[in-house]
């Protein structure tokens, strides 16, 4: 019985190569077709490969052209991104490098410092110091604003940051983040009356850090999670950059972030709910009735990032035990509020816009509620209603 010829390849109209196969029949080779396909899809792949998202460095240069008034922020942004990459690497390797656990010291707020709290504070400080752009630096991990009498601290900017927020989650490999805000100093921090002594000058530096969030000229956070994401605003919307491990650069993956008008998630530490005021309790009950879901990480950067991307509301309110809540105004609430507003959202204490609060203290705490405009407005309406009732 004659062997049956294998099924000839179906042509899609491409030019064909004819050849004889082992059965002596003419067969249509797939080669030209494959070549065409390879050429076509190879070209598409090549284009896709060349169509790389903009790097943070390219974006910074673009901003310098589009918004020249922000040009002097460039070194600070670049330095923060570099520190973010170093911190991301420290966080990712914490388990293997024996960097989990406590440092054995306590910060000014009475919190036990993790090894990485201390290390990341140095990383960020050194990166910002090298820019020569900073006059003063305030950190969660520093008792007082740092205005060392050093040449490096001679710039016109003030930075406030939390180098590793959510570090209590670290040993369980849960998301953490760096939060920062940048303001301009009214006058050179270390200049002053000729006869001013060091403590007077330092006092002057301290006073300059106590500016409301409305004075921020840049703010952002870096999230260390399943990917490393740098969300940044310099006053022209919010841009999100992801760290591309293939090239070791942040690339623009979330251009012009807008928080959804309304979300489906509320995010509060409900364990505190018995101590909340009745308005907030009523608000959360109404959210449950509307079918909202609850999500809470206990890591501000992770919780705010989810709220920015998916919408909804996040809050750490005051309660009977802690009337001002837990979050620090200067380097947690204000930068997050700035980002939230730049993305079209709202950030409030429930009674006051976060960005309007003038700090009295570097480590001052404030109730903080932020998120989708419609969701936060619902809460504000209940607060306004209750105030009207009380007359
Ligand atoms: P840690 O830096 O001590 O982990 O605190 C994190 C944080 O300041 C903030 O990131 C969270 O939103 C908040 O505390 C969580 O606080 P609760 O554990 O009381 O919910």
Any overview of this molecule?
The strands form four sheets. The protein has a seven-stranded mixed β-sheet, with helices on both faces. It has a five-stranded mixed β-sheet with strand order 13-12-14-16-15, sandwiched between helices. Strands 1-2 form a two-stranded antiparallel sheet. The chain has helices spanning 31-50, 56-66, 74-92, 115-129, 198-209, 278-289, 300-310, 329-342, 373-390; strands at 18-20, 26-28, 102-106, 112-114, 134-139, 157-165, 176-184, 216-224, 228-233, 239-244, 249-254, 265-267, 293-294, 313-316, 346-348, 368-371. A hairpin with a 5-residue loop joins strand 9 (228-233) and strand 10 (239-244). 40% of the residues are buried. The protein contains nine helices and 16 strands. The chain has two domains: 56-256, Fructose-1,6-Bisphosphatase, Chain A, domain 1; 265-389, 3-Layer(aba) Sandwich (D-Maltodextrin-Binding Protein, domain 2). The longest helix is centred in the first third of the chain and has 20 residues, at 31-50. The chain is an alpha+beta fold and 391 residues long.
């Amino acid at each position: 019985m004659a062997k049956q010829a294998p099924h000839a390849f179906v042509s899609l109209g491409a030019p064909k190569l004819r050849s004889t196969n082992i059965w002596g029949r003419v067969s249509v080779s797939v080669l030209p077709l494959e070549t065409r396909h390879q050429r076509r899809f190879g070209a598409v792949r090549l284009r896709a490969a060349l169509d790389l998202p903009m790097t943070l460095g390219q974006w910074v240069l673009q901003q310098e052209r589009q918004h020249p008034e922000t040009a002097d922020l460039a070194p600070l942004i670049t330095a923060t991104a570099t520190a973010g990459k170093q911190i991301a690497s420290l966080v990712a390797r914490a388990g293997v490098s024996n960097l989990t656990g406590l440092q054995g010291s306590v910060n000014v707020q009475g919190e036990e410092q993790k090894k990485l709290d201390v290390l990341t504070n140095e990383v960020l400080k050194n990166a910002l110091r090298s820019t020569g752009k900073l006059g003063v630096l305030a950190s969660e991990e520093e008792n007082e604003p740092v205005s060392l009498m050093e040449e490096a601290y001679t710039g016109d900017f003030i930075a406030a940051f939390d180098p590793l927020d959510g570090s209590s989650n670290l040993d369980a490999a849960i998301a953490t983040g760096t939060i920062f805000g940048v303001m301009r100093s009214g006058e050179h921090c270390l200049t002053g009356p000729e006869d001013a002594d060091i403590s007077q000058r330092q006092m002057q530096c301290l006073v300059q850090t106590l500016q409301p969030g409305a004075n921020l000229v840049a703010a952002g956070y870096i999230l260390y999670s399943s990917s490393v994401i740098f969300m940044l605003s310099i006053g022209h919307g919010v841009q999100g950059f992801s760290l591309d491990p293939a090239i070791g650069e942040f690339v623009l993956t979330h251009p012009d972030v807008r928080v959804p008008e309304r979300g489906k998630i509320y995010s509060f530490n409900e364990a505190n709910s018995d101590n909340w005021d009745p308005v907030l309790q009523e608000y959360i009950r109404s959210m449950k009735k509307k079918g909202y879901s609850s999500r809470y990480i206990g890591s501000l950067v992770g919780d705010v990032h989810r709220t920015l991307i998916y919408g909804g509301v996040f809050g750490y309110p005051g309660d009977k035990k802690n009337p001002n809540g837990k979050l620090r105004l200067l380097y947690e609430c204000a930068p997050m509020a700035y980002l939230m507003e730049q993305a079209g959202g709202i950030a409030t204490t429930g009674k006051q816009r976060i960005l309007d609060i003038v700090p009295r203290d570097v480590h001052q705490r404030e109730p903080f509620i932020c998120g989708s405009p419609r969701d936060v407005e619902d809460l504000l309406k209940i607060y306004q209603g209750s105030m009207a009732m009380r007359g």
